[in-house]
Amino acid sequence: MKKSNYSREEVLSIGLGAVAIILMMFLLYNQWTALQEGHAAIDRERASLYKTQASYRGLKQLESRAEQMQEKLNEFNKAFPGSPAEDLLINDISNMATAAGGDLLQVQFAEHITRKKYMEMPVTIDLKINYTGMIDMLDYMQNGPRALRIEEFTMRGGDQMSPGISANIKTTAFYTD
């Protein structure tokens, strides 16, 4: 029997060296995996940051438009108030007639009509006005603060320049229920 050329200490040293190399490779593998997981976590956080920044920019844009949107909401609430607000409507019509150079004679309200999400309030307006004032009055009604739909208007008496024209306007005002 032939004895091996390696002594017991050499075999032990080679074995311990191999175990040390295997242990170092295992530790390097663990470090490499942890590094990859760290990079993946950074990428996820970066994506989350970009998404949050985009949301923030969107909110800042909305904030900059908030005042404009509030004004539009106020205009809408004036055009379609939450109640009939007949006194305010009469005041608006009176101001329109005065601005058009006419005299408001009478405002009559008919029975309100229920629709799905709003109410219609038929209104009849009688006034004395001249022809150009009548054109202005119709313009004021179409572009005034309250939403009005002009159904019909009639004029009687006088000619285009006569201040004595009688006008009757049938219109519908709206309000939310």
TrEMBL record:
InterPro entries reported for this sequence: PilO, Transl_elong_EF1B/ribsomal_bS6
Name a biological process GO annotation.
type IV pilus assembly
Key words of the record:
Membrane, Transmembrane, Transmembrane helix
Q: Where are the transmembrane segments?
A: 12-32
Q: What is this protein called?
A: Pilus assembly protein, PilO
- Specify whether Cell membrane is a keyword of the entry: no
Query: What PANTHER family does the entry give?
Result: FIMBRIAL ASSEMBLY PROTEIN PILO-LIKE PROTEIN-RELATED, TYPE IV PILUS INNER MEMBRANE COMPONENT PILO
Asked whether the UniProt record includes Transmembrane among its keywords, one would answer yes
Recorded source organism is Sporotomaculum syntrophicum
